[in-house]
Amino acid sequence: MNHSCSYMQLLLSFFLVFFLGNSGADPTDGFTLVPLTDANIELQKPYDVPLEQRYSCEAGVHRMWVYADDKPHEPDSRTQPRTEIRIQGLDYSSGIWQFEGYGFVPNGTSGATVTQIHGAAMAATTIILRIYNGNMRYYSGDLVAENLYDKWFRLNLIHDVDGGVVRVFIDGEKKFQVNDKGRSDSMYFKCGVYAAPANISYYMESRWRDIKIYKK
Ligand SMILES: *[C@@H]1O[C@H](CO)[C@@H](O)[C@H](O)[C@H]1NC(C)=O
Ligand SMILES: *[C@@H]1O[C@H](CO)[C@@H](O)[C@H](O)[C@H]1NC(C)=O
């Protein structure tokens, strides 16, 4: 991957911790940061186009986009199109894991999964967080957060595997909690854009920066 991108991400993180400080309870309290390298950032994109036509990384911002009529990520796959970061090398099956990232979804993107935990006993995914018309939903159902278009938001997604619970925080505030879908041997975080089965915009984009993984 792109080393300059990771370096900027590191600088940005230091800036935020240094100048914005850290007051009050935070979703990351009590968690241990799991250092990431470029090897942990795997990109999935429509199999028939070069990465640079669906992804860019500048000043620490991963920008991912996809079109409704794009191909899946592999020729044999029958899934919807995606351009996603798959956190690689940190698959888990127990403990408490947390994804943190700052996300940005431009107005117009709809029916796009922007973050997910892949893997579960009873389904393909433990949780899917989708943007529909600027609001974030649990799959196509429960409302998680409103009015997220065109602004950076901080997402903290906690999976307590042993407790069987998933919690979603937006800008440090707890917005949603749900039971998970059972333990699988291999669960992992993803972010980017993955088209929903229905009600999707032609163009889908999300941007992510300061992606971090924590565990407890
Ligand atoms: C998004 O774009 C539409 C169409 O241009 C506009 O009507 C709407 O107000 C915009 N929403 C936000 C949150 O900016
Ligand atoms: C798509 O949108 C329509 C109209 O809003 C709604 O009735 C339907 O349930 C949606 N389908 C899915 C799969 O989200």
Q: Care to describe what's here?
A:
- The chain has 216 residues and is mainly β.
- It has one domain: Jelly Rolls.
- It is 8% helix and 45% strand.
- It has one helix at residues 3-20; strands at residues 32-34, 41-44, 55-58, 61-67, 82-87, 96-104, 112-118, 125-132, 135-138, 143-145, 153-160, 165-170, 173-179, 188-195, 203-215.
- The strands form two sheets. Strands 1, 3, 4, 6, 11, 12, 13 and 15 form an eight-stranded antiparallel β-sheet that branches. It has a seven-stranded antiparallel β-sheet with strand order 2-5-14-7-8-9-10, with no helix packed on it.
- It is globular.
Topology summary:
Elements lengths: L2 H18 L11 E3 L6 E4 L10 E4 L2 E7 L14 E6 L8 E9 L7 E7 L6 E8 L2 E4 L4 E3 L7 E8 L4 E6 L2 E7 L8 E8 L7 E13 L1
Antiparallel strand pairs: 1-15, 2-5, 3-4, 4-15, 5-14, 6-11, 6-15, 7-8, 7-14, 8-9, 9-10, 11-12, 12-13
